[in-house]
Amino acid sequence: MRTTRWFAGLVFVGLVVMSGTGYAGELTIAESNQCNYQIVIPDKGREEVVDNWLSAAAKLMQATFEKNGFKIDVVQEGAKAADKPGIYLGATGFAKKNGINVEQHDDWTYYHKAVGKDLIIAGNDKKDPKTMLALLGTVKGVCDFLREYAGVRFLFMTGDRFNKDGSLNIDTRSVAFTPVKKIAVPDNLDLKKTPMMRANCDRSYETFNSISLNFFPPLSHIVGGMAAPAGTAVGWPLATEYAKSHPEYFALSKDGKRACDLSPHDAYAMAVCAAGKGVQDLMYMEAEKLIADGRKTITIGCIDGYGLSQCNCEECCKLFGMKAENWDQIRARGDSGKLWQAFFKITERIREKYPDVKIICNRSRLPNLTLEIQRMPIR
Question: Among 356, 357, 351, which Cα is nearest to 376's?
Fold first, then answer.
């Protein structure tokens, strides 16, 4: 079965696999103020940002246990006490020995697996080669473990930041440690989970809150190449480049003038004719250039949705079902969610010819997202 991933500022597609049906008992990790476990992280690797995040996730787990009266130590795998079971985080030797291959995933997939008295929480953790961000599948797995089994609630986004010593400065007001008497998992736990979202293009950095809620930042291998012709603002035509040669790329006013002819204007936020064949062809050709260059993922971005809802040409009036002669009508167009169909005309052309290419529609501040996502032509 072929699965197509769609991206729309938020990036979708999910999979949850549980082996076994039901469970016979529990693996009790902490109870009655007693905990014999250790939190085990990999020995230091080559990527500092990954080491810091795994250490921070382990310390957050440790804080959760201590808030409920359970003392638990954090150790590297090489220093683990042989007489204590462990909660193994990340690509430890123990995880690999027990068949967890995280390197095969390029997304936020993670595993929860009970092995005897031990527990594995692991995903692919690696620095993004083109940004200061990282793919942190294990951290996502830790967040979901703490929510599911330890009463933690991630309430709102804060600016979690690394201190100079590599520790993470967390605003603890954003985390609620609801009290639990026992921390336990099914004794046959064997979960592989791929979050529905691959990226949220409104997130430029990572926090525990963002990761816990699947608001993952757009890593370079997910975003891919931006379909942005020469002289464009986030992928759409600029007046400085196309005003004279292609005025039809720009919004037609009720007075019959193109936006690029009106003065004063901002060349970096010009109202564009989003439904017109000229702009549609322009964006399609730029996408083809990226694909020819070997890109497997491409992003089509745009300016504010209301800026793409101002054109009174025949195609745009047909798309929106109304004219744009005043700001009330422009807002009504933007709020209708019909602008998505202009994106879909481009992406469907790409997908028909290049079915294996992943497409991101990076469209922020577009109202009625939920309604239109339900109508996405997903195969």
Answer: 351
DSSP letter for 365, please. Answer: S
User: Residue 1: its pLDDT value, please?
Assistant: 38
Residue 185, CA distances (Å) to 16, 99, 172, 208 in order = 17, 20, 25, 22
Pairwise CA distance, residues 9 & 285, whole Å: 21
* pLDDT (tens digit per residue) in 147-159: 999 999 988 766 5
Rounded CA separation 247/268 (Å): 15
Interval 253-266: pLDDT, tens:
888 988 888 754 55
The span from the CA of 334 to the CA of 44, in Å, is 50
Q: What is the dihedral sign for C-alpha 59, 62, 63, 64?
A: positive
pLDDT band at 19 (very low <50, low <70, confident <90, very high): very low
Geometric angle at alpha carbon 62, from 60 and 64, rounded to 5°: 70
All domains in the chain, ordered by first residue: 12-217 (3.30.379.10), 224-373 (no CATH)
State pLDDT tens for residues 192-204.
Answer: 999 877 777 655 6
CA distance 262 to 306: 18
Task: Using alpha carbons only, give the angle 273, 279, 375 rounded to the nearest 5 degrees.
Answer: 80
What pTM, to 2 d.p., does this model score?
0.64
| Closest among 315, 312, 323, 314 to 251, alpha carbons compared | 312
